[in-house]
Specification:
binds 3-[O-phosphonopyridoxyl]--amino-benzoic acid, nine-stranded mixed beta sheet
Length: 301
């Protein structure tokens, strides 16, 4: 399907939507982006995504050449033009056209484009069997160098890790920070569940995820899972996590806009829990699906 792509105020058929070879987004990875999803005519957590986009842009001193309201309208208009009620949405803001030097201030105007497409879902069997992941040698970017909270167009750190995972026979990589603590995967945040015995049912467990300051993106799905944990009274905490902690967890799962909540069955050859997707992981996924029908900006075609 030749979907229409929004580019700087106009729409073009997919193969005609083009930017300059002098755009610093291409020359230097100088820009920011968001990956968003629409579920049955609801752009899930759109406000949160736009907040993160504006924060990323602010940190790299990139002025987005439109207001948030204009951005919202451009996203919804693009979905309408393409008659998509369920979609993956990619919003990209590049530094724009400059010369061959680094200087971002020589780029006259940022470019904005919005791609909407059908979602490429992970195979269903991965949700039933769980993923196998592997720790990779490339560590996550140092927050003092390129803060992983900035969703920038420079994804080489993650791409290196992805290549290393593939070389090791896995489709996703576990990334540590320079101190050896767990941060996240190449395109997903990581969670674990551990029995505490301090109560019965959900109360006898704790949901853990690393604090983002160790070197992880503040995932929108991650936030949603913490919100759900609060609602269903599952104790949770942001805590430093080691590989040892993950190996000995009762359940491990990853979260991301594309993956939603995906169970992890094996890490570095160690089976997690009983090797099958956990009950609490499935409960969180069910609640997440409920939330995707409620929390966002609604539109009709
Ligand atoms: N960590 C990183 C490094 C990400 O890029 C997430 C976590 C999850 O965040 P959200 O907000 O989606 O819950 C992401 C976002 C891909 C792909 O093709 C994935 C992302 C971005 C771009 C491409 O897997 N994930």
């Amino acid at each position: 399907m030749d979907y229409q792509v929004y580019l700087d105020g106009k729409w073009y058929p997919k193969h005609e939507a083009k930017i300059s070879v002098f755009d610093h987004g291409l020359l230097y990875g100088d820009g920011v982006f968001e990956g968003i999803r629409a579920y049955r005519g609801l752009v899930f957590k759109l406000e949160g995504h736009l907040q993160r986009l504006w924060e990323s842009a602010n940190t790299i001193m990139l002025k987005i050449p439109m207001t948030r309201e204009e951005m919202k309208k451009a996203i919804v208009d693009t979905l309408r033009k393409n008659r998509l009620l369920d979609s993956y949405i990619r919003v990209v803001v590049t530094r724009g056209v400059g010369d061959l030097g680094l200087s971002p201030w020589l780029c006259k105007k940022a470019s904005v484009f919005i791609i909407t497409d059908k979602i490429a879902l992970y195979p269903k069997e991965l949700y039933q069997k769980g993923l196998e992941i592997i720790t990779v040698p490339t560590v996550r970017n140092l927050p003092e160098a390129i803060n992983p909270s900035i969703k920038s167009l420079n994804y080489l750190n993650n791409i290196m890790a992805k290549i290393e995972a593939k070389n090791g026979g896995c489709i996703e990589a576990l990334m540590l920070n320079h101190q050896g603590y767990v941060t996240e995967c190449t395109g997903d945040n990581v969670f674990m569940i551990k029995k505490t015995g301090k109560g019965t049912g959900l109360k006898g467990h704790v949901l853990l995820t690393p604090p983002t300051y160790l070197g992880a993106l503040k995932g929108i799905t991650r936030e949603a899972i913490l919100e759900i944990a609060g609602k269903i009274k599952l104790p949770f905490e942001e805590r430093i996590i080691t590989r040892h902690d993950l190996f000995n967890a009762d359940e491990v799962f990853l979260t991301g806009t594309a993956a939603e909540v995906i169970p992890v069955a094996k890490i570095d050859g160690r089976g997690i829990g009983d090797g099958k997707p956990g009950k609490i992981t499935n409960l969180l996924l069910k609640n997440f699906h409920r939330l995707t029908r409620k929390d966002g900006v609604r539109y009709s075609l």
